């Protein structure tokens, strides 16, 4: 989805100004459902299922609660002080420039990792047709194509995004209908080893609580993008409808997620599912539905590529906005006037980030998706935690919201710490720590620079 900038001081409404929205609450709910479903769910959910089995269904329920809490606080801040920027603006408003700077760069790093995850997901899905071609080649092709889309401009891009959002939603509904038909016996076939409905706690949690704990991050990751929908609540006709819109959106997503994942683990053993193939394709692979894998893969690749291109466009423009606000070097404000006013330095830095994913795909083709997706999901949890913390500072928080925010923080931290429990995904945790540490060190350095500049200004 085309994510807005992070600071918002250049193109935002002034504090307290009410933006004139034209969306009804149910329209925002549908938009949120269509835009949130992505490759993180279609492929990334396989990592969680592989870890915890049927209890992944409950992971999505827990993640829905945590996601709603984040949406709740962001929507409240947005309606109280409408801004077209992102939560980084509110971090700065709550704690000062250092918080805005750190949040902006952490958000930029998150988006780069998410693009790397999407890039890898698209490559893995494409290997379904060309299994002998190395992963890094597909990653290179998709990276070049996404850069080309940005170079061509974005006229009409939103309309294409809306169409592809419908395609993504239709794809998962197609799986649900076909799976239901197969279970009802309307479609012959299926595996003799179908696990069926788990009849004991041990079958629901085959890996125990630690495995369930480790799976939480991938359920949260499937709800990624809710921060953008929270910001879009300022486009509602009635701003007070934002909480209702968020509730309906998350209920809709949760129902779709839980039903589809439940059908997948009911139809095929979770041990056969992996991050190398969409669990929905694996679940129907033993049925005579030769068209399904091809149609499903094609639909997800189209929608996923569109999302990745939108993310690239957003990241490029995000860095320009950060530079204008003084949160990035001034060089990133420079644009090529002769080429659609292209912010070349910002695009080059984003391309370097994508290149890192390609190199990793070359060196670690078997583990790259797990590592990048894990790191991206953890950084996303850091961002979401700061949304709640900023709301505590900005809003007049009542006791009920204090408790709600506390529950949200616990769930988000649970998703992060759960990745330490599982050896196969632990490297992603350390990658996120390294990136967060780099942002923290740079922030400390910049605070000293700002203080020195302020002192010199006073003395002069």
UniProtKB/TrEMBL annotation:
Q: InterPro entries in the record, alphabetically?
A: AA-permease/SLC12A_dom
Set out the biological process GO terms recorded for this chain's protein. Answer: amino acid transport; transmembrane transport
Q: What is its main location?
A: membrane
Q: Does the keyword Repeat apply?
A: no
One GO CC annotation:
membrane
Task: Spell out the Gene3D superfamilies in the cross-references.
Answer: Amino acid/polyamine transporter I
Q: Where in the cell is it found?
A: Membrane
Enumerate the UniProt keywords alphabetically. Answer: Amino-acid transport, Membrane, Transmembrane, Transmembrane helix, Transport
Its membrane topology, per UniProt?
Answer: Multi-pass membrane protein
Q: Which domain of life is it from?
A: Bacteria
What stretches pass through the bilayer?
25-44, 56-75, 133-153, 165-187, 207-226, 247-270, 295-321, 342-365, 371-395, 402-421, 427-447
Amino acid permease/ SLC12A domain: which residues? 29-455
Protein name (Swiss-Prot/TrEMBL):
Amino acid permease
Q: What is the lineage of its organism?
A: Bacteria, Bacillati, Bacillota, Bacilli, Bacillales
């Amino acid at each position: 989805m085309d994510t807005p900038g992070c600071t918002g001081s250049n193109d935002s409404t002034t504090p307290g100004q009410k933006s004139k929205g034209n969306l009804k609450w149910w329209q925002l709910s549908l938009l949120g459902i269509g835009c949130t479903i992505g490759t993180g769910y279609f492929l990334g959910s396989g990592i969680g299922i592989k870890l915890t089995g049927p209890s992944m269904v409950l992971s999505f329920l827990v993640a829905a609660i945590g996601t709603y809490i984040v949406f709740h606080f962001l929507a409240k801040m947005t309606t109280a002080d409408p801004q077209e920027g992102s939560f980084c603006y509110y971090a700065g408003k709550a704690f000062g420039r250092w918080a805005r700077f750190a949040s902006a760069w952490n958000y930029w790093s998150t988006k780069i990792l998410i693009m790397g995850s999407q890039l890898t997901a698209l490559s893995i899905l494409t290997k379904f047709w060309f299994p002998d071609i190395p992963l890094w080649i597909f990653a290179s092709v998709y990276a070049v194509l996404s850069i080309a889309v940005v170079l061509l401009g974005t006229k009409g891009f939103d309309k294409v995004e809306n169409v592809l959002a419908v395609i993504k939603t239709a794809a998962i509904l197609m799986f649900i209908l076909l799976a239901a038909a197969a279970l009802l016996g309307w479609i012959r076939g299926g595996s003799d080893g179908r696990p069926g409905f788990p009849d004991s706690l041990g079958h629901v949690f085959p890996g125990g609580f630690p495995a369930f704990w480790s799976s939480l991050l991938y359920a949260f990751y499937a709800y990624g993008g809710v921060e953008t929908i929270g910001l879009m609540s300022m486009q509602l006709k009635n701003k007070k409808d934002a909480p209702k819109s968020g509730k309906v959106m998350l209920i809709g997503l949760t129902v779709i997620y839980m039903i589809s994942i439940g059908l997948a683990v009911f139809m095929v053993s979770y041990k056969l599912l992996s991050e190398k193939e969409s669990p929905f394709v694996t679940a129907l692979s033993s049925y005579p539905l030769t068209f399904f894998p091809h149609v499903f893969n094609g639909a997800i690749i189209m929608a996923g590529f569109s999302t990745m291109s939108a993310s690239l466009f957003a990241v490029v423009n995000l860095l320009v906005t950060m530079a204008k606000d003084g949160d990035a070097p001034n060089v990133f404000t420079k644009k090529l006037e002769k080429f659609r006013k292209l912010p070349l330095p910002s695009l080059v830095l984003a391309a370097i980030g994508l290149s890192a994913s390609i190199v990793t795909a070359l060196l670690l083709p078997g583990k790259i998706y797990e590592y990048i997706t894990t790191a991206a999901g953890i950084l996303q949890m850091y961002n979401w935690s700061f949304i709640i913390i900023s709301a505590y500072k900005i809003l007049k928080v009542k006791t009920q919201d204090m408790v709600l925010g506390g529950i949200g923080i616990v769930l988000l931290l649970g998703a992060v710490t759960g990745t330490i429990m599982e050896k196969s995904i632990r490297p992603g945790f350390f990658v996120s720590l390294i990136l967060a540490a780099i942002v923290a060190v740079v922030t400390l350095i910049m605070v000293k620079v700002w203080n020195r500049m302020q002192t010199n200004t006073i003395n002069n």
